[in-house]
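Retro notes - structure team

What went well: the batch runner handled both jobs without manual restarts.
What didn't: labels got mixed up in the shared folder, which is why I'm recording both outputs here explicitly, each with its sequence directly above its tokens.

Job 1
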Amino acid sequence: DVIYHYRGHEVSKLFMYWASLIAIAGVVKREAYLVNGNGRLFTNLYLLIVGDSGSAKNTVTDFVKSMLDYFEHAVMEATSDEYIPEMKRVDAVTSGATRAGLQEAMKPANKRGKKTITMRDAYGNPIMKKNGQIAEYFQTSEITIVQEEMSVFLNRQQFLDDLLPWLINMYDPKDREEVLTRNGGREEFRNILVNMVGNTTPVALKDTLPAGVQSDGFLSRCLLIYQSYTDHMFPDIRIPEMAPTQDDLKRNLGWIAATTFVQYDLTPEAKEWFTKWYEVKWNEGRASGVLAGLKSRHKVMIKKIAALIRWQRYERNDRLIHL
């Protein structure tokens, strides 16, 4: 749907495909995940859209911002359960932010909407947990960072001293963590999840990030989506006939968010393919020198992407990821 809508824009299909995946990651949040041994693999992404000037990169961040803005209203159209729109509120940080500003946005106390939600069944009765207590949903520490100019956001000295270690630490979602506040106090964050998407050029990316973090650390956690120039030419923007509108796209994303919950797993055939693929990549990674850190994360990345591709389908017949 997203690709169809943007066929009359100059932005590349590649960029918009990834824009749709980061939007899904932002609205599914921690409510759905993949089985990962005895744990859970959440599908948060750090996405860098890389292209030369004039490649229409800003269309990506404009799209993501428009989808996430007051997103709970789109969820309301997809479900009659009153608590699901509250769970699916999305906090998007769309302007230049410091570490302190990002942490303020993540504080449960600063979230819009209800701070605590009583979970109810189809008849309106409170859902009871096994221990006899009423099941409740508490506001979480989940945000999506959307930045049009990553070179500004990742200012060299500020990035090295403050944002770099914070972004690396926040990449792996944690259930709980105490963080230092700007006043020197401590704040407990719960159910942490950070997504990020931003635009940059190859030159700005090289100049912004020092060599020490270009091969490992921060960049090993990022997906770089590169196209040097746009592959479409349209003097005027046009929407193809019968293509979904922006409202349609947001409504469809609301349905995805409202219907995507709990655990998903690979089918036996998908697990067999993944095992064979990983054996090859594991040997490649050992021989890749400075790129070993980056390649070691490929196995996690491919599972996350597989889940997001599964969730963008408009059916929920099972909770399996097929080949």
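Job 2
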Amino acid sequence: LPTTLAIYLVVMTEWFKANIRNYLYVGMLLSVGFLFKTVVAFDALAILTLLLLRNGLKISRQVLRMLLGAGLVLIVPGIYLLANGLGEDFIRAAFLNNFGYVKAGNFTTISFLGIANPWITVGGKLLLVGAAILALRRHYRDALTPAALFYLWLIWTLFGALLSGRPYLHYLMACAGAMTLLIPYFWGQLWPPTRFRALQSRDWIKGVAVLGAVISALVLGVGGKIELVASTPALSEAAKGYYANSFSYLTGRISQDAFYRFYGETVTLNLKLRDSLLAHSMTRSKIYIRGNVPWVYYLWGGPHAPQHSLAYHFASPQQANGVGTAG
């Protein structure tokens, strides 16, 4: 919601001549979203890219207002963290540990490409982002419309969703806002059918290229061409068919038990633990799971003693395996 409102304010300011101070509220909204999920930084990059495409480097007034708005929101939790000596822990948990997470997830091989270098993989994704932005710039030239912002929003949020190299469905939720806004735009471009007569050959080439890219993405994701190299065979199998398994369950083709069994013994054991807790605990009993398995709290559905804080929130991925917790 905060990012959607921020995008709305940008549209009203850039195309409907609303007051430039709206960028103060844009910064505040983005920082509120950032406190919940750091990937909101990619939404901010979409807005910054739009400003650069529209105004070149003459964006200091907008950017300063955004930074001021963000600072007004972040100053309160910032003071709290510093006052309690938690600043370093917060930076490590929210930012630095993500580098290891992204690096590990990008040890991938896609189809016949045996890419096992995470920095090459991430660099390739950035090159695709750059190419998409250049194509957008060439298409709109100097006549950028709100649809251009929605495309930029989709480009950057899709990059954020795929950055970790893990094919998790819930990561794609970050793209939902842009996709929802672009669907009616596409419909308006395709209907009525008489519009097809006015299309030139280059328009058809662009359409085929976009369709090919979409089909390739579906083949790589849904068709099961993603394989984790540095992982167990069970995890590789899960990653290969992650989308396909989820799609089968959502469409009623497989049962919930079959959906869970796909993910191997770990999920099965967690479900057995849930059943044991339900059978031997009082409804409002508080539990504490020793280990990095917060999903058991969710599966059980009852209250829990600690927050959902795990070892890797406070240490590097290498150190997390050796971190114990007091019972």
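One thing worth noting from job 2: The beta strands are 108-110, 226-228.
We'll revisit the folder naming next retro.
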